[in-house]
Design a protein that fits this description.
Keywords: Transport. It comes from Alishewanella jeotgali KCTC 22429. The chain is α+β, with helices and mostly antiparallel strands. Among the domains are: 147 residues, no CATH class; 122 residues, Beta Barrel (OB fold (Dihydrolipoamide Acetyltransferase, E2P)), CATH 2.40.50.100; 150 residues, no CATH class. Helix content is 27%, strand content 30%. The protein is built from 14 helices and 31 strands. Strands 9-18-21-20-19-22 form a six-stranded antiparallel beta barrel. A hairpin with a 6-residue loop joins β3 and β4. α10 runs antiparallel to α11 and α12 packs antiparallel against α13.
Length: 613
């Protein structure tokens, strides 16, 4: 077999064999590009990963194939197991434990090969499926139990009996003493009307006097005096220019709008009382989940700091969707007897919706590439075949199957990606390449780039859910971007101290930025490790946090809200062979996940234009 030089070919895939798994993936093929640093990595990988286990795997596969390949560059094939990869110098491993089946897309493995691959299967199930909707919100006082005490007449606050927010008052307790000239005049009119009504008068005047007395009493009542207070004025026969306002109900003072000595006008709210025994939980529900919430429905939820679960009835759903958050507020009234709660407390709820007669498979069984979904069906005797399926809703750790499978079909629930990778290496139809390719190599140009963009498909699929929908037109992310680049520079330089300094600046920049509410999921990723950068004593931990930060930054870059042009990079070897993306200010690749060990390992995937471009 003709060996290819480093100048002619670059990594188009990788195979990492560990103590119990065989993980395979793809990487971009670009003429003239090479992964520097792989030779150094090879020695380390050989020492840990290829001692003993390769012999077992080779023995399982030896009867089925005599070809060997490089775990970093599987396009290279050789029949000599003692040969070495001409690109990176690594030792070779068996190409696969599989051979072609009866159909063009079938693949067959021996029992031992299957054990080494760790393949697990289970039947497709039909039955009840439970959907879990997770909500977050906060506690507030029940609006129906709020009482506002207003000034019934203008005047000055002579004395304030309740002078702080949070005080608890009993029904009938004194709240304020109000000085009011208007009240004084009204009392004098009452006394005058009372005296006239008590005098002997002709019959035609008695009705008039009684009417005048009733009008005087009514005026005082409208000024805030109770019937008992009005009778007290008549009894003592003396007008006073002060009135005491009493609490009509018991409650907690949640608002105090006046201080002693203040002047108030008629209708001004003096204090507001709330019944602390009656609370609401306000949840924000996204548009996609509104169909699962109905008025009258009972929810179970938890409150931070409380061990017991709370219960309540949905009493209302906001009539309009918030244009920024894209949510509607759901009000849940807590059941009586659930006290010791504080308004403003954070709460979480899980809504369990059960749907019957659903055909489902585990989420781990489906291989997702864009709009396609592929599962592997077990045909028996170690044979497997891919099948394209149409998926529906997600129910926890299971996916609904709309078309492509039948109840009782046996599918691969664990290890489907490893089986698919073998088909890719053989150049046959697979998840990544529905039409298949020649086993000896991969195409160049646009097709190669399109294939390379499928690298890290699971990671990028997860980032697709981080759609940035908030309004960033007035948000300046320059400081956040600069600090992120500072962390990138520190990590590719293997400088933990510099990373700690940059991380501190990064988190400070996050706090100083006015984030749109709709970007909450992105912010949570960016805030990973916030406040604890100085506690990180291992650069690998810093790199794990940088992976989360990168996911959030990539979502912002894809939305076009970062200030400057930025480049998306990918390394298939990062994060222990799982692959990882990151952003750079330029196209000169410097790997932050390996630093000097494999500084040039990776590829440029995409260029994002910034707002200033």
């Amino acid at each position: 077999m003709k060996k290819l030089t480093t100048v002619q070919w670059v990594a188009t895939g990788f195979v990492v064999i560990t103590a119990g798994t065989l993980a395979l993936g793809l990487a971009m093929q670009t003429p003239g590009h090479q992964h520097a640093g792989h030779a150094d990595h090879a020695a380390h990988a050989n020492h840990e990963d290829h001692t003993g286990h390769d012999h077992d795997l080779a023995a399982a596969f030896s009867a089925e194939t005599q070809e060997y390949t490089c775990s970093m560059h599987p396009t290279f094939r050789s029949t000599d197991p003692n040969d070495r990869c001409p690109i990176c110098g690594m030792e070779l491993i068996p190409v696969s434990g599989g051979r072609g089946g009866e159909g063009p897309t079938e693949i067959e493995f021996s029992g031992r090969a299957l054990a080494l691959l760790g393949v697990q299967t289970e039947p497709v199930r039909r039955g009840d499926a439970e959907q879990v909707i997770r909500l977050s919100g906060q506690l507030e006082f029940d609006e129906r139990a709020l009482t506002s005490i207003s000034a019934w007449t203008g005047g000055r606050i002579e004395r304030l009996y309740v002078n702080y927010t949070g005080a608890y008052v009993e029904a009938g307790a004194r709240l304020v003493e109000l000085y009011s000239p208007e009240l004084f005049v009204a009392q004098q009119e009452l006394l005058q009307a009372t005296r006239q009504a008590n005098q002997d008068a002709p019959a035609f005047l008695r009705d008039s006097q009684a009417t005048t007395l009733r009008a005087a009493r009514e005026r005082l009542r409208l000024l805030g005096l109770s019937n008992e207070q009005i009778d007290a004025v008549i009894t003592r026969g003396e007008a006073r220019d002060r009135i005491t306002i009493h609490a009509p109900t018991a409650g907690l003072v949640v608002t105090r709008n006046v201080s002693q000595g203040d002047y108030v006008n008629t209708g001004d709210v003096i204090v507001e009382l709330a019944d602390e025994q009656r609370m609401w939980a306000l949840f924000e529900v996204f548009e996609r989940d509104l169909g699962a919430i109905q008025v009258g429905q009972y929810l179970e939820f938890s409150v931070q700091g409380q061990r017991e679960m709370l219960h309540g009835e949905v009493i209302s759903i906001a009539p309009r969707i918030d244009p920024e958050r894209r949510t509607r507020t759901v009000r849940v009234a807590l059941e009586a007897g659930e006290q010791a709660l504080s308004a403003g407390g954070f709460t979480r709820a899980e809504v369990h919706i059960t749907q019957s007669d659903k055909l489902t498979i585990p989420t781990s069984a489906a291989l997702l590439t864009g709009r396609r979904a592929v599962v592997y069906v077990a045909l028996g005797e170690g044979r497997f075949a891919p099948r394209t399926v149409e998926l529906g809703q997600r129910f926890g750790d299971r996916l609904e199957v709309i078309d492509g499978l039948e109840e009782g079909d046996t599918i691969v629930s664990r290890g489907a990606f490893r089986i698919d990778s073998e088909l890719q290496l053989q150049g046959r139809p697979s998840m990544m390449s529905p039409e298949g390719e020649h086993a000896g190599g991969h195409g160049h140009g646009h097709d190669a780039h399109a294939q390379h963009n499928d690298h890290g498909v699971h990671e990028m699929a997860a980032m697709d859910e981080l759609a940035v929908t908030g309004d960033f037109s007035q948000v300046d992310l320059s400081a956040v971007t600069d600090a992120y680049m500072g962390m990138w520079e520190a990590l590719h330089s293997d400088d933990l101290s510099a990373w700690q300094s940059s991380a501190k600046i990064f988190f400070a920049a996050l706090d100083a930025t006015q984030w749109p509410t709709a970007s909450e999921a992105v912010y949570e990723l960016l805030a990973t490790g916030k406040g604890h950068a100085h506690h990180v004593g291992n650069i690998n931990t810093a790199r794990d946090q940088f992976f989360a930060h990168s996911q959030g930054m990539i979502a912002l870059a894809e939305a076009g809200v970062l200030p400057n042009t930025i480049y998306l990079m990918y390394c298939p070897m990062a994060r222990r062979g799982q692959g990882a993306h990151w952003l750079q200010p330029n196209s000169g690749l410097l790997n932050p996940y390996f630093g000097a060990t494999m500084l040039r390992c990776g590829d440029e995937l995409e260029r994002f234009e910034g707002q200033s471009s």
